Structures are given as structure tokens and as C-alpha cells.
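This follows on from our talk about sequence and fold. Please put the record directly below this note.
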Amino acid sequence: MKTQGELEASICEGVARFEQEYMGRGPKDIRAHLLGDLLVVRLHGVLTAAEQHLVKTLPTEKGRDLLKQVRTHLIETARPLMEAMVEGIAGVKVVSLHHDISTATGEEVVLFTLAEAPPLRETRKR
């Protein structure tokens, strides 16, 4: 059994590895926050050079919408992999996955709804 910090760190490692292997580029920064049965993963600096160029060269709404469509499709296609990774680390079933990305800031958020709060080991006080 893991502490909350250990579980969040393991989730960060798994999502960063997924981004690197599946999307071709890892995030510059990543944080995971477990809030009961919700797991929020926040990634910074995930846009590739090609994606940044696409957003800058096309009209604002068209570039943004196209990038969001592609990223959403990629996440939906890889959903079983991401859910299995989270379930393996957290030890509980993933009920749903929600995703969004900002083309302005390059921030991506992935929210996992879990069937229940994962069992955690108490942190020892020193």
C-alpha cells in the first residue's frame, strides 16, 4: 500500500511515460492530485513544435479547435491504456476520464473519476 504522495508520484511517472511514448513528447512539468475518488493530473508544456506552429499560423478558432479535436481523439483512442495504468497504480477501477488542453498556455488536464478512494498508507511523522 502506498502513501498519497507515493501514489501521486507513481501516477505522474506513468502519465509522463505515456505522453513520451504515445504522443512523442513528455511534459515539462506534471503534477497529480488525489482528492478522494478524483484524480487530477495537470501537465505543463505538452504542445509539440508542430502543434504550436499550427495554432499560430491558422486563424485562432480554427487552429485551437483542430488541435483540441486531434488531442481528444488521441486520448480517446488511448483511454484503455491510461485507465489500466491508473487502475494498476491506484488499485481501484477508473469510472471515467475527462480531458482538456489549452492552446494558449500549453497546459493539459486529465481527470480520472475512480470507483472509490484508493486505499492509502498513513504517512509517518518524523
Q: What stands out?
A: The first strand starts at residue 29 and ends at 35. Residues 60-90 form the longest helix (31 residues). Helices lie at 4-23, 49-57, 60-90. The domain at 4-114 is CATH 3.30.980 (Threonyl-tRNA Synthetase; Chain A, domain 2).
